[in-house]
Design goal:
The protein is built from 5 helices and 2 strands, in the order αααβαβα. It has 2 domains: 84 residues, no CATH class; 45 residues, no CATH class. By secondary structure, it is mainly α. It has a two-stranded parallel ribbon with strand order 1-2. The longest helix has 28 residues. 56% of the residues lie in helices and 6% in strands.
Protein backbone atom coordinates (compact mmCIF):
# COMPACT_ATOMS: atom_id res chain seq x y z
CA UNK A 1 0.00 0.00 0.00
CA UNK A 2 2.85 2.40 0.72
CA UNK A 3 4.29 1.83 -2.76
CA UNK A 4 1.02 2.97 -4.34
CA UNK A 5 0.93 6.03 -2.09
CA UNK A 6 4.51 6.93 -3.02
CA UNK A 7 3.76 6.64 -6.72
CA UNK A 8 0.72 8.89 -6.50
CA UNK A 9 2.33 11.45 -4.25
CA UNK A 10 5.33 11.84 -6.56
CA UNK A 11 5.52 15.19 -8.33
CA UNK A 12 4.41 14.57 -11.97
CA UNK A 13 6.71 17.34 -13.27
CA UNK A 14 9.86 15.89 -11.70
CA UNK A 15 10.72 13.81 -14.79
CA UNK A 16 10.58 16.79 -17.15
CA UNK A 17 12.18 20.19 -16.94
CA UNK A 18 9.89 23.21 -16.97
CA UNK A 19 6.18 22.89 -17.72
CA UNK A 20 4.39 19.59 -18.28
CA UNK A 21 4.71 19.11 -22.06
CA UNK A 22 1.58 16.97 -22.49
CA UNK A 23 -0.52 20.09 -21.98
CA UNK A 24 1.17 21.86 -24.90
CA UNK A 25 0.36 19.39 -27.68
CA UNK A 26 -0.83 20.80 -30.96
CA UNK A 27 -3.95 19.47 -32.71
CA UNK A 28 -2.10 16.47 -34.16
CA UNK A 29 -0.99 15.27 -30.73
CA UNK A 30 2.65 16.31 -31.24
CA UNK A 31 4.67 18.39 -28.87
CA UNK A 32 6.03 21.65 -30.26
CA UNK A 33 9.47 21.12 -31.72
CA UNK A 34 8.65 17.62 -33.03
CA UNK A 35 10.60 15.58 -30.45
CA UNK A 36 9.23 12.07 -31.10
CA UNK A 37 11.19 10.47 -28.25
CA UNK A 38 9.63 12.91 -25.83
CA UNK A 39 6.19 12.23 -27.33
CA UNK A 40 6.60 8.48 -26.81
CA UNK A 41 7.71 9.00 -23.21
CA UNK A 42 4.69 11.23 -22.62
CA UNK A 43 2.30 8.60 -24.05
CA UNK A 44 3.89 5.88 -21.89
CA UNK A 45 3.57 8.19 -18.89
CA UNK A 46 -0.12 8.80 -19.72
CA UNK A 47 -0.81 5.05 -19.87
CA UNK A 48 1.17 4.49 -16.67
CA UNK A 49 -0.78 7.19 -14.82
CA UNK A 50 -4.09 5.73 -16.05
CA UNK A 51 -3.12 2.24 -14.93
CA UNK A 52 -2.01 3.49 -11.54
CA UNK A 53 -5.28 5.40 -11.13
CA UNK A 54 -7.19 2.23 -11.97
CA UNK A 55 -5.23 0.22 -9.37
CA UNK A 56 -5.77 2.91 -6.74
CA UNK A 57 -9.52 3.02 -7.38
CA UNK A 58 -9.75 -0.79 -7.39
CA UNK A 59 -7.99 -1.00 -4.03
CA UNK A 60 -10.30 1.68 -2.66
CA UNK A 61 -13.43 -0.05 -3.98
CA UNK A 62 -12.47 -3.50 -2.68
CA UNK A 63 -11.76 -2.15 0.79
CA UNK A 64 -15.48 -1.94 1.65
CA UNK A 65 -17.40 -5.24 1.96
CA UNK A 66 -20.67 -3.80 0.59
CA UNK A 67 -18.84 -2.36 -2.41
CA UNK A 68 -17.24 -5.75 -3.12
CA UNK A 69 -20.68 -7.35 -3.15
CA UNK A 70 -22.04 -4.58 -5.36
CA UNK A 71 -19.22 -5.08 -7.86
CA UNK A 72 -19.25 -8.89 -7.94
CA UNK A 73 -22.79 -10.21 -7.35
CA UNK A 74 -24.88 -8.26 -9.95
CA UNK A 75 -22.67 -9.15 -12.95
CA UNK A 76 -22.73 -12.84 -11.97
CA UNK A 77 -26.52 -12.79 -11.62
CA UNK A 78 -26.84 -11.02 -14.98
CA UNK A 79 -24.67 -13.63 -16.65
CA UNK A 80 -26.81 -16.42 -15.25
CA UNK A 81 -30.20 -14.81 -16.00
CA UNK A 82 -29.42 -13.35 -19.41
CA UNK A 83 -27.54 -16.46 -20.48
CA UNK A 84 -30.83 -18.36 -20.44
CA UNK A 85 -33.19 -15.51 -21.35
CA UNK A 86 -31.50 -14.12 -24.45
CA UNK A 87 -31.86 -16.17 -27.59
CA UNK A 88 -30.37 -14.59 -30.69
CA UNK A 89 -31.25 -17.36 -33.14
CA UNK A 90 -33.10 -16.14 -36.20
CA UNK A 91 -35.67 -18.74 -37.24
CA UNK A 92 -38.34 -19.09 -39.91
CA UNK A 93 -36.79 -16.81 -42.53
CA UNK A 94 -39.14 -16.53 -45.50
CA UNK A 95 -37.16 -17.76 -48.50
CA UNK A 96 -37.75 -18.29 -52.21
CA UNK A 97 -35.48 -20.60 -54.19
CA UNK A 98 -34.63 -20.40 -57.87
CA UNK A 99 -32.97 -23.68 -58.77
CA UNK A 100 -31.22 -23.35 -62.11
CA UNK A 101 -29.36 -26.65 -61.75
CA UNK A 102 -32.36 -28.95 -61.20
CA UNK A 103 -30.03 -31.77 -60.18
CA UNK A 104 -30.50 -34.32 -57.43
CA UNK A 105 -27.87 -32.60 -55.31
CA UNK A 106 -29.48 -29.16 -55.61
CA UNK A 107 -32.95 -30.56 -54.79
CA UNK A 108 -31.43 -32.32 -51.77
CA UNK A 109 -29.90 -29.06 -50.51
CA UNK A 110 -33.19 -27.20 -51.01
CA UNK A 111 -35.02 -29.98 -49.14
CA UNK A 112 -32.58 -29.73 -46.24
CA UNK A 113 -33.07 -25.96 -46.05
CA UNK A 114 -36.84 -26.44 -46.09
CA UNK A 115 -36.81 -29.02 -43.28
CA UNK A 116 -34.72 -26.83 -40.96
CA UNK A 117 -36.29 -24.48 -38.43
CA UNK A 118 -34.33 -21.57 -39.84
CA UNK A 119 -35.83 -21.27 -43.34
CA UNK A 120 -39.42 -21.36 -44.61
CA UNK A 121 -39.47 -21.84 -48.37
CA UNK A 122 -42.45 -19.87 -49.64
CA UNK A 123 -41.94 -20.12 -53.37
CA UNK A 124 -40.00 -21.41 -56.35
CA UNK A 125 -39.88 -18.69 -59.01
CA UNK A 126 -39.12 -19.96 -62.49
CA UNK A 127 -37.71 -16.78 -63.98
CA UNK A 128 -35.58 -13.87 -62.85
CA UNK A 129 -38.59 -11.58 -63.30
CA UNK A 130 -40.71 -13.66 -60.90
CA UNK A 131 -37.85 -13.60 -58.38
CA UNK A 132 -37.60 -9.81 -58.69
CA UNK A 133 -41.37 -9.46 -58.27
CA UNK A 134 -41.29 -11.62 -55.11
CA UNK A 135 -38.57 -9.40 -53.66
CA UNK A 136 -40.43 -6.19 -54.55
CA UNK A 137 -43.75 -7.46 -53.13
CA UNK A 138 -42.07 -8.39 -49.86
CA UNK A 139 -42.85 -12.09 -50.13
CA UNK A 140 -39.43 -12.79 -48.69
Amino acid sequence: MTIVKEIFLKDPTSRFSGERPWFSRDGAGRTPGGDQGLQERIEVEDVRQGLLSFVKELIQALRDKRMRMTLIVPPILQLIIFGYAANLDVKHIRTVVRDLDQSVASRDIIDRFGRSDYFDIVGYPGTAGELKDAIMKGAL
